[in-house]
Amino acid sequence: MKMETVVIFLTGVIVGLVLAIFGGWNFFEPIIGMATLSVSAVIWNRQRVIERQLGDSMEHKKFEITFGLRAGYDGEGVDFTLAEARNVINEWMTERVSKNLPILSGMVSEATLIYPVRNEADGSRITEEVSGQYSGSLSPKYDKGRSDIEVIETLNNLAYYLGVRLQQERVYVSFAGKQWVVDWQTLS
Q1: Whole-number pLDDT of residue 96
Q2: Is 85 found in the same domain as 18?
Q3: How far apart are CA 33 and CA 16, in angstroms?
Q4: 74-83 per-residue burial string, b: 16 or more CB within 10 A, e: under 16
Q5: Same structural domain for residues 109 and 143?
Q6: Count of domains forming the chain
Q7: Would you say residue 142 has pLDDT above 60?
């Protein structure tokens, strides 16, 4: 229980006690009345706090960028580490902050992408690739006024940056229930 709540409740009880002693009423009647009033004040105060928090809220919009850590598909490309991918994201973010451009705060995690090889030469075998994900959600504190178009442009810019730096043919992006592919070769 917060100190503010305790103070409100105890004040009501003390006022009720004083009224009982000096008012000549039934001893418990004013105490119970003031305690009830205090509880109502506590509930009202909590509701105001919650309404203020909800007033500062926004629709929950998640984003995710999924990228491979192996360059190319033939098994002879460079294998990047998750630390290198984090460095790429940090460079992107630093560059954008220095130019006063929007960024998206998020988390980097390692993933394993499992998919079928879909070409006639290799048949239909299944392969695995170490991958990374940059994910997060818009912040009511920092992103509340941003349009979806601005967020999509920011995501596309980061996906493009990751694709070029990690030598990926395509990077997968999702935001607010939509998913698309950024193919860095066609964007360059």
Answers
A1: 96
A2: no
A3: 7
A4: eeeeeebebe
A5: yes
A6: 2
A7: yes
Residues 89, 125: one domain?
A: yes
Contact 158, 104 (CB under 8 A): yes
Q: Are residues 86 and 167 in the same domain?
A: yes
Radius of gyration of the chain (CA): 29
What pLDDT shows up at residue 17?
62
Cβ atoms of 30 and 23 closer than 8 Å: yes
- Across the chain, mean pLDDT equals 80
Name the more confident of 129 and 92.
Answer: 92
Strand (E) or helix (H) holding 32: helix 28-55
Q: Which residues, at least 6 apart from 105, have a Cβ–Cβ distance to it below 8 Å?
A: 136, 139, 142
Our measurement of the distance from residue 13's CA atom to the centroid of its chain's CA atoms, rounded to an integer in Å, reads 43
| Contact (Cβ atoms closer than 8 angstroms) between residue 158 and residue 88 | no
Alpha-carbon distance values, 54 to 19, 47, 50, 102, 148 (Å): 39, 10, 6, 25, 21
CA distance 151 to 126: 34
Range of the domain at 122: 62-187
Domain shared by 19 and 109, yes or no: no
Which residues of 75-125 form beta strands (DSSP E)? 107-116
Local confidence band at 53 (pLDDT 50, 70, 90 cut-offs): low
Residue type, 115: Y
